[in-house]
Amino acid sequence: MSPKVRKAIYPGSFDPITNGHVDTIRRLVSLYDELIVLVANSSDKKYLFSANERVELVKRSLQAISGVKVNSHNGLTVEYAKEVGASVIIRGLRAVADFEYEMAMANMNKHLDREIETLIVFADPQYTFVSSRLVKGVSAHTIEKLEGLVPSAVLEAMKNKVRGT
Ligand code: ADP
After folding, report:
1. Does any ligand 1 atom lie closer than 6 A to the CB of residue 49?
2. Cis omega (within 30 of 0) on the bond before 11?
3. Which residue puts its alpha carbon closest to atom 19 of ligand 1?
4. Catalytic-role residue among 13, 21, 54, 61
5. Which CATH code is given to the segment(s) 7-163?
6. Is the shortest distance between the CB of 61 and ligand 1 below 6 Å?
7. pLDDT in tens, 110-145
8. CA of 121 to the centre of ligand 1 (A)
9. d(CA 122, CA 62)
10. Does 45 participate in catalysis according to the annotation?
């Protein structure tokens, strides 16, 4: 019998990916045989970056980390997990403000599929204030000040968005 492959999924909007996400991914990668960063695409959300752009930015931002797969998905995360044989979904927690949403989502996913476990990873303290939403808000006024908070590929993409190129 072949040994069991430990596969985990780290799903999110990644609109755009931040250094908080990258840090979490870096810490997780050695814990699993396969880590899949899943760029979610939901029809009822409005994104700054298209699904393709978000996947591309995630890939470019994770170039230095080996052993991570990047994919995008339109449906339920638990269905994707089942499809690829992953039994763990990982989410991040920055502060108490994240807690209720993450707990509701973990419980809903448990309701949808009891065999898939959600694990929570705390954000590194230096990134607890970093969110894609705030990054987008600030980017409308200054992009230079976002250095250190988002990967350089994201800085570049945000400059292009602001310029409309
Ligand atoms: P979603 O729209 O699904 O919440 P996000 O891309 O905003 O997608 O976040 C994906 C996951 O990453 C969430 O679990 C979120 O709590 C976590 N996360 C967001 N920002 C950070 C950060 N700065 N540090 C660590 N984890 C984070």
Report:
1. no
2. no
3. 131
4. 21
5. 3.40.50.620
6. no
7. 999 999 999 999 999 999 999 999 999 999 999 999
8. 10
9. 19
10. yes
